Structures are given as structure tokens and as C-alpha cells.
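pasting for the record
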Amino acid sequence: MTLRDHLYELRNRLALALVALLVGCILGFLWFQWRIGPVPSLGHLMTGPYCALDAPPRFEAVPGKCTLLQTQPFEAFLTQFKVGLAAGAVLTAPLWLYQIWAFITPGLYDNERKYTRIFVFIASFLFICGAFLAYFVVPKGLAVLVSFGGDQFSTALAANEYISFILVMLLIFGVSFELPLVVTMLNRIGVLPYRNLKKWRRGIIFTLFVFAAIATPGTDPIGMLALAGAMTVLFELATQLARIHDRKKDREAVAEGWNPDDYNLEDEDDKPDKPRSEKSTGYDDVT
């Protein structure tokens, strides 16, 4: 294809992806107030962590009814639109991801297509796991945050700020759960060998806790510890996968007659050009 044809193809794929997102946004907007069979409404799911708090200190404008506070005109509409857009992007992900896949797949080899499918599947699964963990952690974090002040405060959360807090938590947890996949991919291509992961383990774990403290909104200690703990476990899992992979690579190197010390050099340019069992003196090829 010519460059112009590629640009036309990109334009058409993006247009179809945007249409899919628009349809998903409309469905999410309607789902915010309506139930879908046994599935509760999206508004009920989003307000669930807030409504899980005890009535005192949670403020109830109508006794026995849990509602968010609208502080500006159209805040309820904009909040519902924001949630609908996020839900629509998730619901229609197979459609707009397919458009991206259809654009890039003609330039990939068969083995690259296979690895890309595996990568997308695992990345999606990890993101969903992170989002689920965030949804169950948020009520605990909110309970701790609103407990400060004792009986001198009542909690009446503004809709926009509360929904933004929930969406950010879901996004941060979901993206953070991609860590083991990134580490594993970097190890597979030789950028991050196991010996480096083992050497940097303490520093990386400390960095994960610092990242969790900074990234978690609302200075929520429960969310911070949950995120840091989950990322640490996932990092250790990725480290062990790197260990297994590098050991297998070393065994294959020995079977082919390579010196493992030379094979695992950090600089790829330092890898010897032919198998050898003794250290080179630098003058082996001089005759």
C-alpha cells in the first residue's frame, strides 16, 4: 500500500473505533440509571462503596436513602456522561481494539501475531483484576478517611469528585497490574535479565511502595498498602518467571557450546562470534 492508502486506512479504522466508542457511551449513559436484568444499574455500582459507609457520619438528605451531592448545575449529567463514557469504552473494547488490530496486523509475521494476541489477552485480564481489587478496597479506604474528625463532621460527597476518585482508583490499579507483563516482556527480549532483577529487588520494591503512596488518590492508607502489596507480589512472580526463562536460556547456550558467562553479557555486542570453551586472550584470531 502507498502512504496515502495507509492514511486512508488509518482514517477509516479510527472512524469505526470512534463510532464504537460513541455507541458504548450511549449504552453506558443509559445503564447508569437502568438495571439490566439481574445486573444492578451502573449508578448503583458506582455509589456502592460510598453507600457501604455507616449512616453517621455519612449524611443522608433523605433518611434511609443514600445519594450523592450535586453542587453545580448539570453536575449530575456530566457525571453520568463521564461514567457512561468509561463504561462504554470497556463494553465496546473488543470492537475498537479490533480496528487497531486490523490496521497493524498486515505488517506482522505469524509468530508476532500469536505473541500479540497473548499479550493483549494477558494485559486485559490483569487490568480487570486490578480494577476489581480497587473496587473492593475503596470502601475500606473511605471508611478510614471519613473516620477522622469523630462526631464533628458529616460526610456528603460531591458527585463529580467522588466519581472521579473511583475512576482514578480503578485506572491506577488496572494499569499498575500490568507490571509483571512489562517485566516479563523486557526479560524475554534480553533488556532486563534475572541477575539485574535480583540485584535491584530491594530498590524496586521500595520504589513500588513510593509509587503507590504517590499514585493513590486521597492519601488513602488502605488503598496504598493494597496497591503496593499487590504490585510486590506480581513483581516477585515476574522475577521468578525471568529466573526460569534465563536458566532455560543458559542450558540451551551450554548445549550449543557457548560459554554461559559470555552468553549472558549485558552488552549484546560483547557476545562471541563463535562457540568457545576458553576465555579469549584477544589474539586468538591473529595469525
